[in-house]
Amino acid sequence: MTPSAVRLRRIRDQILAGGVGAYPTEGVWGLGCDPLNETAIRRIIRLKGRGSEKGLIVIAAGMDQLDGLVRWPTRPSIRQGLAETWPGPVTWVMEAAPDLPAILTGGRPTIAVRVTHHAPVISLCRAAGTALVSTSANFSGRPARKRRWQVMKDFGVNLDWLLPGPLGGQRGPSEIRDAATGRVLRAAAPAPAKRP
User: Fold this and answer.
1) What is the mean pLDDT of the chain?
2) Which residues make beta-bridge pairs with 110?
3) Percentage above 70 pLDDT, the chain
4) Where are the alpha helices (DSSP H) in 1-141?
5) What angle do CA 162, 7, 43 make, to 5 degrees?
6) How many Cβ atoms from other residues are within 10 Å of residue 93's Cβ?
7) What is the pLDDT of residue 117?
8) Which of 155, 165, 40 is nearest to 104 (CA)?
């Protein structure tokens, strides 16, 4: 299902006005907003019941949307790792650009970012003209939501917008790697076992 241009424009306007919403990502439903809008980020953290010290992932349609949010790594091995995993369901933790909201980074000098290959999110980010906060649409400590009706049951009355569409093919939240070392910080969910 491809979101209509009219719906995308409406969502864009709500995002730029500080709205918080939900959308399907590669593996689970996510909550999102403008990553530079501190008020909107605080709303998401309150909705989830999440600690503000944890920081949030930012998802983008292309590397150009991460300019101004990150300091791009210079090590050839890490740049090769980015080229091999983006666009795709791998999140990288890298040095944050200066002056980002502490509520976004959790007060750390790093930020977690991903360039997606999931068509609904690409359409959303391109329509909004910005990368977006991407945190799983669940209450803190509870399983990530994989159904739209679950998201609406938990958060519906508190959302300003919702992008319809399917999840991607991942089984759960994205893999996370450290750009300073290349180390995997959170493994991707294992693929389902093939039946004989």
Assistant:
1) 93
2) 95
3) 95
4) 5-16, 38-48, 76-85, 102-105, 119-128
5) 35
6) 22
7) 96
8) 40
